Structure formats: structure tokens, C-alpha cells
Amino acid sequence: MYSRTRQxxxxxxxxxxxxxxxxxxxxxxxxxxxxxxxxxxxxxSQRTQPDADLFADVVRGxxxxxxxxxxxxxxxxxxxxxxxxxxxxxxxxxxxATYELLAHNNVPxxxxxxxxLGITHAFFQGDEAGFVNAALDRLAHAKRAAExxxxxxxxxx
Length: 157
Prior knowledge:
By secondary structure, the protein is an all-alpha fold. The protein is 69% helix and 0% strand.
């Protein structure tokens, strides 16, 4: 069973994906999820309820910092990959994870990477998790270097 924070992060990825597809603003999507999906949707009602505050923070924070987030992710992708061309669910995962890496310094980077790898596995069964792991690891080393020791080079997955 997922923890309240993992549920919130999973829902945030879904909400960010929905925002990209529908062009709804963050406040409208947060309201929809909290009032309808968290309360009535079988997917959420049969599991631990998401941490609504974390969910709302991530969903509202991503569009607020999206230019910064997208640039940071693009710098961590292989040279021949364009962020705009990757799968929209992967973009949502990257955006949520990057927002937290930038804004939630109280949560260890390795924990965030593990959380978003778990979420990636909820959506994909192939090589996507390795791709996400490598990019988030590069990003974490760039943005949170102090959390990694001098001999802790980037993992190459």
C-alpha cells in the first residue's frame, strides 16, 4: 500500500498530466482532485488517502516554476533528447520530481528519486525507469550537490 505522500505524488503526476492535456489551471485541477477523485474515485478511496497539502503544493508549484523546471530537466537529458518530445506522462513525472528537488530541500534527494521511480513503475514496464533514474540523479547532483559526498559520482543507469 502506498503512503500518504506517495499517493499525493502519484496524484500530482496525474494532475500535471491532465493540466497539460486540458489546459486547465492548477487551482481547478486541485479542486477537482480533492473534491471528487480523492473522495469518490475507487482508485483513491480504496487506498490510503493522499496528503492533500503536498498534492496541492506540487500541482500549484509546477506551473509557477515551469520554465525553470523544464530547463533544468532538459539539461539532464541525453543530448539527442528534447524535453518537449518525450512522453507526456514522463514530462509530468519529471516536472513533479524536479519541483520537489528545487522546492522541498527538507526531503532528501535520494528519497525523492526513489519515490518518483516507484511512480514511473506504476505507469511503465520498460526502460523508462532507468531513463528517469539517470536524469533525476544528474539533476539532484547538480541542484543538491551538498547531499552527495565527494566520491558519490552520478550513477549511470
